[in-house]
Structures are given as C-alpha cells and as structure tokens.
C-alpha cells in the first residue's frame, strides 16, 4: 500500500442518501482498513464544481483527491484532460469489470464507471395505491397537471420522451423530433425541476403526484417517511452511470491513496454493499445485484440485461449535453 504524508483523502460527494451510502459502504471501511481519514465535500447537481476545474487548469493542487460524479461530467473532464489516468498496477480490480465500466474512446482509464443507475417513476400511494402506474403515459394525464417533477434541464428524460412521442431510442441523437414534441406536450404538467433534496418535502406534503427520479432517490424518499412507491414502467427505463476519478495535479502520495480508494470501491464485497444501499447495478462482473432489482421490478439486474432498458450511451449524452439543455430550456421557458 502507498504511504501518505497528509493521512487524509477528500472525496467530492453528493448529499443525502448518496453520501450516506458512500460513507457506509466505501469511506468508513477504507478508513478502518488503511488508517487514512476520508472527508466528504458535498455538492449539489451534476456539474463539476468550478473550483476544481479552475485549480486543475491553473496547475494548482485540486481541492479534492477523488471526484465522484455523473458519467457525463466525468467524460467531459476526461476529454478536457482533467483526470489522472488510473493504472491497473494500482487499481487491479479494473480487470474484473464489465466493458461498460471503461469509457469509450480512451486507450487508458481516465475514470471508471462504478455502477449503473436506473431512472424510475415515483408515485404517491395515496393516489395510485400499492401497484402504481404501468406506463410513462401517466405523466401526460391532465389529472396530474402541475403536479409532476423532473430533474433540472430534463436530465435523463430524453429516452422516455422519445418513446412516448412515437420515436425510437436508436434514433437518438440524429432524430429527436419525437422527444422534443413530447416535452412540449408535457410542459404544463411539470411544476418542479429540482434535485431530490428539495423534493422530499413536496412529496411528504402531497404537492406532487409523480416524479421522474433515479432509483436511489426514490429509495431515499421512502426511507425519509414519504408515502410513495416507485415503478419501472412497461416501456422500459433509461439509465446512467456514476464514476470515480482522480483530478490531475493531486500530489503523488495522495494520488496513490486515491487510486487505492477507487480499487477498494471496486472490490466485490464493497460493490455489493454499495449497490445494495443505493439500488444500483454493480460494474464488477462477479458482484450480485441488490435484491430490490428483482425480476418483478422490471429494472435491469446486470449490465448485460437490456430487456427493459432504454439505452443511450453516456458518450452520446456527453457530446450533446449542452445542446439538449438549451433545447429543453427553450421549451420550458418559452
């Protein structure tokens, strides 16, 4: 194992159930195994904090030793040369991962995908009972006008909108008229476009009927006392991936510890524990999927399970992210 003079790693982390899962499954066990303290710096949203980008580009020491980000942000960082390559000598668990764990278009590993997240439909049990809606079409039902929530800028919704609009997921990104047409129809339905930390109270108070959410957020709503359920509708669910990476410019000792932290997160028992807490699909080939992704849930149980997956590669999302955000904003602010 490497030695560190600082004896501390700083990890860029989201808040809420995401942060608790990282702490319980990865950071605390890593501290216990190595004696290296792990401090989480919490942020909100999918964009990389500006202070990290500024520090790397100016040659300063990055404020975080490890970045935990969405794949789109991580891929952009990799294309902008903000990442230190991961070596299989220091991260041997790279050899045990599914092909989707490795970013497209790179000879090395500037980052590693650590699990896949399904997006699901969250619903109020007081309205729909225990079963929940069977189709994403419910998002257009006029009875729920002004009582639907999406993510800011429509993050993640494109494949669902494409299918509901009569198009094909395989036509993304070349022909997305069906997606944009459907979102224009949905505009009056949507009253909230927030990240999930802001939505828990809206759900508990009954101000929202339906939410398009990542499954870990749905699980977090349930655990916080909201009387909600979630369902993977019959048309299928989109997914995304989250990543771990080491910012360029982290000092050598801290960088070796950061790589060891990432390797630890990719070990089989940690993958299984982490994904069980979040409700996500492991990238490690021999890791078991969490029980919540059972066959009755219609959610993918492995990265090879595409029966209910509305799949758009993260590399395509990254390449078109700015364009899609602008189009979404023009629809919802016109």
From TrEMBL:
Keyword terms of this UniProt record: Signal
One Pfam family this sequence matches: SBP_bac_8
InterPro entries the UniProt entry points to: SBP
The keyword Cell wall biogenesis/degradation appears for this protein: no
SUPFAM superfamilies: Periplasmic binding protein-like II
Descriptive protein name: ABC transporter substrate-binding protein
Phylogenetic lineage: Bacteria, Bacillati, Actinomycetota, Actinomycetes, Mycobacteriales
